[in-house]
Amino acid sequence: MAVYLDNNATTALDEKVLEAMLPYMGQVTGNPSSVHRFGRLQKDAIEQARESVAQLAGARAEQVIFTSGGTESNNLLLKGFSQHAVARTSTEQETSARIAISAIEHMSMLEPAQNLPIEVDLVPVDTNGCATLHAVEQVVTEQTSLMSVMSANNETGVIQNLSPLIAFAHERDCFFHTDASQAAGKIPLSFVESGVHAMTLSAHKLYGPAGIGALVIDKRLPISKLQFGGAQEKNLRAGTENVPAIVGFGKAAELALADLQENSLHVRALRDTLEKGLKRFNTVTIFAEKAERLPNTVQFGVDGFDGETLLMQLDKKAIAVSSGSACASGKAEPSHVLTAMQVPATLANSAVRVSLGKNNTMSDVEALLIALNDIIEINRHSAVMMAANV
Ligand SMILES: Cc1ncc(COP(=O)(O)O)c(C=O)c1O
User: Which stretch of DSSP H or E encloses residue 133?
Assistant: First the structure.
């Protein structure tokens, strides 16, 4: 049996989620915008899911805008905000507004940020992978009107200490967004209480279907819509809703909230055992070990290895992990997250990420440790043979 340890890339659809979705993929039809009973049934299902997603985020239902996933939510936020800022401040398409985002954001933040009509500043992180208040203070200017720092990083699992950053943003009348795609379902979220103005969520990171997510948004944060054609989703996201996916997201959110503590304790126990085992190899470095991290994630480097090679050797032994982030796989450069943490390039290039999920067991962890031991030993043996010129 193959062992899947790449749950930050995506998770297996929960059976209960599939069960909830199935009627909307077959028997139940109707366009949610139609006023007849078929349409109303679909609309009701959407609103019920909206309520569940809002509860997971600690938000109000009317603040949830369904999108096609984390990537679209991040794009909608950044492009929607900057287009609105440009339109508001000048007819000559010029504005003094600026955005500040952390250097360790997912590419679905970093790439759109490079293509905005307004300036973007990058907030550096310290060697633990944290965007500190000090770093934010150095970067944010009078013009900064939106800040964004992710809740937890997809590669290292580092949980950001957002409270002081949000308080700082409030003092300056600056909006604050957080990408909680990886945090949701793993640590508690509190949209309203925390004071954030926008939050990104993605269903397939929490045992829901891929291709559905949400931008949770406080209506005081103005954004322009990017897609035109209909008034769906508070007129911010035109297009007939993907009802089965929305229903699946709602069910996944409901389960994630109900099982948050249990799942978190389960994966933490596995992760702690894994880290204990990893520390027995004197060639392993655990990244951001001192920082507060998601309970399911460990990213580490193995001296003398290339992360991609290690990934492939583990794959040959039917164990699936990731080198850096899944989206960055295939790239030769070291991960931008580890680079921002000032991890030397050779060590960063050896990075492997293990992300545990609720379906993993202790024997999965044991299988990984045994496989790693074999790979490292074979490598050491061949290095000795080569040195001895045998
Ligand atoms: C932190 C973070 N944000 C956004 C995304 C993108 O989400 P989606 O795959 O739903 O577009 C990911 C996916 O890896 C992620 O880890």
Answer: helix 133-139
Would residue 327 show up in a list of annotated catalytic residues for this protein?
yes
For residue 36, the CA-to-ligand 1 centroid distance in Å is 36
d(CA 283, CA 289): 15
DSSP class per residue in 155-215: TT-BBP-HHHHHHHHHHTT-EEEEE-TTTTTTS---HHHHT-SEEEEEGGGTTS-SS-EEE
- Cβ atoms 129, 335 nearer than 8 A: no
Is residue 390 pLDDT above 70, yes or no?
A: no
Residue 280 clears pLDDT 70, i.e. is over it: yes
Which of 10, 154, 335 should be mutated for ligand 1, with most atoms under 8 A from CB?
Answer: 154
Give, for ligand 1, the residue of 7, 202, 212, 249 to mutate: max count of ligand atoms closer than 8 Å to Cβ.
202
Report pLDDT for 377: 86
Whether 327 is in the pocket of ligand 1, judged by its Cβ within 6 Å, is yes
Tell me how far the alpha carbon of residue 263 is from its chain's centroid: 18
pLDDT, the chain, mean: 94
pLDDT of residue 114: 96
* pTM for the structure as a whole: 0.96
pLDDT beyond 80 at 262: yes
* Residues in CB range of 326: below 8 A, 6 or more apart: 6, 8, 9, 10
- Cβ–Cβ < 8 Å for 177, 196: yes
Ligand 1 binding pocket includes 69 (Cβ within 6 Å): yes
Is the Cα dihedral 138, 139, 143, 146 positive or negative?
negative
Ligand 1 in reach of 286 Cβ (< 6 A): no
Side chain identity at residue 59, one-letter code: A
Q: How far apart are the first and last CA of the chain?
A: 37
Delineate the domains of the chain, giving CATH numbers in brackets: 3-10+260-375 (3.90.1150.10), 15-258 (3.40.640.10)
